[in-house]
C-alpha cells in the first residue's frame, strides 16, 4: 500500500478551521493508480479509524489517481482547485 500512496490531503471546513462540531472530515488520497483493491483497503482503514473514535468525525474519503487529479486541476475544475488551494497535506 505504501508504494501506491502519493498524497493525503485534508480539505473542507476542518482544514480551514471553520468546522462546526458535527462536521465531517474531508480527505483525498492520491495514489499511483486507483484500483478497486486499493480503494477498498483505504475505505476499510477509514472505517476502522471512525470505529475507534466513535464515528466522530465521519470521514468522507475520496480516492483518486494522482494523474486524474492533476488533469482535472489543469482543466480548472473548481472542486480540484479548492483542494489544491484550501487543502492541508498530511
From TrEMBL:
Record domain Polymerase nucleotidyl transferase: where: 7-48
Alphabetical list of InterPro entries matching this protein: NT_sf (IPR043519), Polymerase_NTP_transf_dom (IPR002934)
CDD domains reported in the protein's UniProt record: NT_KNTase_like (cd05403)
Top-level taxon in the UniProt lineage: Bacteria
Annotated GO MF terms: nucleotidyltransferase activity
Protein name in UniProt: Nucleotidyltransferase domain-containing protein
Annotated source species: Candidatus Desulfatibia profunda
Record lineage: Bacteria, Pseudomonadati, Thermodesulfobacteriota, Desulfobacteria, Desulfobacterales
Amino acid at each position: 500500500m505504501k508504494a501506491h500512496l502519493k498524497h493525503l490531503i485534508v480539505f473542507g471546513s476542518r482544514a480551514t478551521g471553520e468546522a462546526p462540531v458535527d462536521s465531517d472530515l474531508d480527505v483525498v488520497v492520491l495514489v499511483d493508480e486507483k484500483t478497486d483493491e486499493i480503494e477498498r483497503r483505504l475505505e476499510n482503514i477509514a472505517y476502522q479509524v471512525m470505529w475507534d473514535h466513535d464515528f466522530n468525525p465521519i470521514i468522507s474519503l475520496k480516492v483518486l489517481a494522482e494523474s486524474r487529479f492533476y488533469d482535472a486541476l489543469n482543466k480548472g475544475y473548481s472542486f480540484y482547485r479548492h483542494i489544491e488551494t484550501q487543502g492541508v497535506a498530511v
